[in-house]
Hints:
Elements: H1 4-31, H2 38-60, H3 84-118, H4 127-134, H5 140-169, H6 179-195, H7 220-230
Amino acid sequence: MPNQTDIANQQQLLETHRYTLQILLQQQAMHGTAYAPPAIFHGIRAAREQIQLIKQTLRGWQVAVDDNPNDAEAASSEQPRPEAAQVNELLKTLDLAYKTFASQVSLRNKLVDMIRQRLPTAPFREFEIFFLQHYRQLNEAELFFHQRVRALTVSIQFANRRALELANQLQIDQAVPSLPDLRAHLTIWLNKYDQVFQHAPHMCVLYVGVEEGVRFPRSVEEELRDYLKAEGR
């Protein structure tokens, strides 16, 4: 059985998480649910998960715990429907992935120029093949750039993974017809990342689209914005 110190520690943790949750809910209210940064939603969800775990632990120890109205999301009597917040977060996540990709393109092109200037006879092919062919010939400076480009692919991976989670949660394919294409693109991209990129140190960029037939659907972001406008969000 837990001692009084164990119980007191859990009670203190409960109060700490409730205080954190209160601050996050206030921040969400200031921004508005549809426009709050993704970090706020993640923080609220994490705090509530911890609160529920602590309450279960204390009650399992036969310790009485009051329920706070903020401990869980309020139940809705309406039929569940996609939240505008999820669409907003998806748009922000796609924008983050694009901005990271744009930064990567600049470094990628500089690395290609460095290699071709030093090895002027090196034929240029598709980027993945180009880096595969010349990886073992990279000098110290080129290898440093290669590592920076690769690190950005890792960052893109985090954004793509979250984007796929959000796209899978949304049931608005009729209003956003490019959403299935986005899911397919992200699924293939992440599968290549998990199965190939992580085991191939020569790779610094990762592309899918032409050969796989799953290009990024360029219209999806406009369709998502139109959905928000139609919902009055």
